[in-house]
Amino acid sequence: MADETISINRRAHHDYAIEETLEAGLVLTGTEIKSVRQRKVNIAEAYARVDKGEMWLIGAHIAEYTQGNRNNHAPTRTRKLLLHRDQIAELTGLQAAKGLTIVPLRLYLRNGMAKLELGVARGKKTHDKRRTIAERDMRRQLERDTKERVKL
User: Fold this and answer.
1) Is the separation of the CB atoms in 119 and 18 below 8 Å?
2) Cβ of 129: how many Cβ atoms within 10 Å?
3) Does residue 87 contact residue 48 with C-beta atoms inside 8 Å?
4) 90 in helix, strand or coil?
5) 4-124 sits in which CATH class?
6) Which residues make beta-bridge pairs with 36?
7) pLDDT confidence of residue 1
């Protein structure tokens, strides 16, 4: 069964240079998973942090479930990520030594379970962002030119 992508963090590739990726499970309540299945999720401003040997997702917005009752979840609450202990230790070392950030890249469902693709990233400076945009524009123009030559 293929993964069903729920949300993609497009800002992550613009703001960060992704060095490596990994998959983490996401601990959700009943009303949260129902909202996720309705695709009412925003992970653009979220990040992950290690605290007391556990990984947490901070800043992700999962809208309240419309048919939920008074026990509905808080939209921006901190959520626990499920990773192996050695993965968490490695990420802790990377964050401390190199000053890297852990950002969510994609939220998806696999076999009914919510999974999060995390990226270990380094923040881009303004000139790096400009260079990336210029390279992308040059690549697009080159593709356009080759298509025109093929037509002739």
Assistant:
1) yes
2) 12
3) no
4) helix
5) mainly beta
6) none
7) 54
| Paired residues of 4 in beta bridges | 109
- The angle formed by the CA atoms of residues 57, 59 and 63, to the nearest 5 degrees, is 105
Domain coordinates in residue numbering, the chain: 4-124
CA–CA distance, 15 with 139 (Å, rounded to integer): 20
Separation CA 149–CA 33 (nearest Å) = 50
Give the three-state DSSP class for 1: coil
- The model's pTM is 0.75
User: CA-to-CA distance for 46 and 103, rounded, in angstroms?
Assistant: 7
User: What is the Cα–Cα distance from 57 to 43, expressed in whole angstroms?
Assistant: 10
**Angle CA 116–119–64, to nearest 5:** 35
Q: Over the stretch 31-84, which tens digit does the pLDDT of each residue have?
A: 888 888 989 899 988 988 888 888 999 999 988 888 877 878 888 889 999 999
Query: Do 47 and 152 contact (CB within 8 A), yes or no?
Result: no
In degrees, rounded to 5, the angle at the alpha carbon of residue 111 between the alpha carbons of residues 108 and 116 is 25
pLDDT one-digit tens code per residue, 5-29: 888 888 888 788 888 889 999 998 8
